[in-house]
Design a protein that fits this description.
Subunit structure: Part of the 30S ribosomal subunit.
Organism: Halostagnicola larsenii XH-48
Keywords: Metal-binding, Ribonucleoprotein, Ribosomal protein, Zinc, Zinc-finger
Binding site for Zn(2+): 18, 21, 35, 38
GO cellular component, one term: ribosome
Number of strands: 3
Largest sheet: 3 strands, antiparallel
Strand order of the largest sheet: 1-2-3
Length: 44
């Protein structure tokens, strides 16, 4: 995914920040969201 695809037209990110790290976005894997920095995972 290109970097520009996660941002809205107003410049805000279309992803959630990691609740542990706070400075990274959660990657969307369809059935879960995952932080690549600390390993935090939210299952849907």
């Amino acid at each position: 995914m290109a970097r520009h695809e996660i941002y809205n037209d107003d410049g805000s990110a279309d992803r959630e920040n990691c609740p542990r790290c706070g400075d990274t976005y959660l990657a969307d894997h369809g059935d879960r969201q995952h932080c690549g920095k600390c390993g935090y995972t939210e299952w849907e």
